[in-house]
Structures are given as C-alpha cells and as structure tokens.
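Q: What changes when zinc ion is included in the input?
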Amino acid sequence: MLLAQPCFCWGFFAHRKINYYAVFLLPPEMILLYKPYADFLTEHAVDPDKRRYAVPAEGPRHYIDIDRYGIYPYDSLPRKWNDAVARYSEDSLNAHGIGPWWIQTMLYRLTKAFKEKNQAMILKYSAEIGHYIADAHVPLHASSNHNGQYTNQKGIHGFWESRIPELLADKEWDFFIGKAEYIRNPLDFTWRRILENAAAADTVLKFEKELAKSFPQDQKYSFEEHNAVVMRQYSSAYTIKYNEIMKGMVERRMRQSIFAVASFWYTAWVNAGQPDLSELSHKEFSAEDLREFENLNIAWKNAATNSREHD
Ligand SMILES: [Zn+2]
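A: The predicted holo structure follows.
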C-alpha cells in the first residue's frame, strides 16, 4: 500500500512553530500570560484545520483564490468585505475563499475577549487567529492551482508548507525576530501579504516544474515505512535543492508569519486598552469549550482514518 500524507495549510508542524515563536515577540505585559500558555497556543494552532472536517463553512476561511478576480493586482475585487459582497455576492466570495476577511473577524473577536478580560477566549482566539494569519503567508493559499492540480504538480502544496519546514526548520532556520509591532491598518496589512502570495505563487509552481525536469526522476521521491505502511515523500535531496533555488522563500514566509501573528495579538491588546493580563476572569474553559476541543479531535481522527481507507 502506498500513501501520500494528507496535508493542508502550513502542515501542523509549521503552524505549531509559528504560534510558539510568536509568543517571544510580545512585550512583558503580554508575555506574562502567553508564556505560561505557550503549550496551549502551540497545540491549538491547528484547531481551524481540524474544524474543516466538522464544519462545512470552515474551508473558505483558510485561503482566497485571488486569480479568480482577473489579473494582478486584482483591483476589481474590493478589499472591504461589504463592498466585495455588494459586487460579487457572499456565495461567490465563499466559493473562492474568504481568508483575508476572516482574519479581521477573528481580530474583532480577540479584541473583544481582551476588553472583557476573558482569559479562556483570549487564548482560544489567539491560537486560532495565529492559524489564519499564517495561512495568509502561503503563496499557494492565494492560487486556484493550490495543489498544482492544473499543472501536473499534485503534492506541491504539502511539499512547500510541510515537507520543507519539517526537514529544515529545526536544523537550519533562525526564528529570532525582533518585536511585535502595532498594526495601524490590519486589513491593508493582510491584503499586502495576499498580493505578495499572488506574485510568489507563479515562482513556487514554475521553479518546481523546472527542477522536476532537470532532477533524476528516480531520486525525486523517497519511501519510508511507518507501521508496516510505505509512505512516499519528496526526497531530502529534492527538497533541499528546491529550497535552494527558491532562495529561502519558505523560511522567509515563516518568519513573516511569526512576526505578523505576534503583531496581531499585540494590536488586539492595544486596541482593547491594554488590559492588565494578571487580572483576568474566566480562567477555566467552559464544559462547552472543552467539548468543542474534543469534537475537533474526533472529527480530525475520523477523517484521517477515512482518507487512509480511500487511498
Ligand atoms: Zn489552514
């Protein structure tokens, strides 16, 4: 039996790292809450991906197929949600992904949680907004050809966002990144990242295509056995070569993600009036929250089992 690993936005590995490293960019007034809960923020960085199995509306929040809206810089697509709805209708926006707008919704929720001094919700929304912001830094999350399915490059999505960081992040990359900064216009900030993605998506696809042509075909993949099942993955040599010709794009995008996540957390806190985080209420999650966490895990595990059976 031959399996390819299921994969989504930044693999689980990278999402967890991004939320974790973001904690250390915060000012001391925030570190005092975020550091003791770094494990929670790390673990729950992937909840939004797990939720895709439980909630149909979840999928479009992770991407935007910006190339569906004409050509760069896609001026025909209004940047504000209400204007975009007026022009295209909510249904058709949902059909092509609503990533950049969903980040603003999450920012609103996080800011409200800070104003209410609700610790459980501050942590939950911090973990989750971190996920969506990180997704907004992945070039293939802004392209309708998101897994190379139109160009015979299936698998490139997980290659870029899972295989490369899993092979190189711990060994070779540097995540010491200054400090979080206040973001004056979060919507503008988000759209700048999306447009960078749109410009980079072509490079991501084109360079892999060229490498595939010049690289010995029988060395492109490697096979590893896990629990008596053989898994196919891009070989280390192929991964390293691809990372090299892209001149560190994945590391750069990961660093920018970490900076952006910390800066959105910081911005929410400032906009809420910089509440004292040593005096919060709702320190425990409600029974309902705990049930939701549990259900996400069940949905994820079932889906993982099913996808294995279908392969
Ligand atoms: Zn995602």
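Observations recorded in class: The longest strand covers residues 221-226.
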